[in-house]
Amino acid sequence: MEIRVIRDAISRDELRKIAKQQFGEMVKAVVDVEQGIMAIGGELHSDEEMVLLDQGSAQRDLWGINLYPDKPLSEWIEFDSMINVRPSGGNRSRDVESSEVRAAVTRVVSRLVGG
């Protein structure tokens, strides 16, 4: 599947279709918290990260997540990706450890995914 950069809202139904074409119930995404965009459709978060870097995103602003469109809103974002491991930036695990960054990622996703 081709990696898409999402700048305008898409529906959860569209995410469900993408999930079924790839991983079944999950869509990998990389969110740029500074630009308020995200990339979806990659096999790996690193592939999506590269697309955003090529389009001018800064590494420090990119966070890998997994979206589960059929889960309730309180559970549908999973903050887990190898690209999140950056000890020099204070994030020592695959998880997004900062509550501020988690909130920023959630705001972007909530704006970009409707329904």
Folded structure, characterized:
- The protein has 3 helices and 7 strands.
- 30% of the residues are buried.
- The strands form 2 sheets. A 5-stranded antiparallel beta sheet has the order 1-4-3-5-6, sandwiched between helices. Strands 2-7 form a two-stranded parallel sheet.
- The chain has helices at 12-22, 45-54, 99-112; strands spanning 4-6, 10-11, 27-32, 37-40, 62-67, 77-78, 113-114.
- The chain is an alpha+beta fold.
- The mean pLDDT is 95.
Task: Name the features.
single chain; 115 residues; alpha+beta; 5-stranded antiparallel sheet; two-stranded parallel ribbon; 3 helices; 7 strands; globular
The main sheet orders its strands as 1-4-3-5-6
**Helical percentage:** 25-40%
Helix/strand structural class: alpha+beta
* Rg, Å, rounded: 13 Å
Distance between the termini: 23 Å
Query: How much is the average pLDDT?
Result: 95
List the helices and strands and how they pair.
Elements: E1 4-6, E2 10-11, H1 12-22, E3 27-32, E4 37-40, H2 45-54, E5 62-67, E6 77-78, H3 99-112, E7 113-114
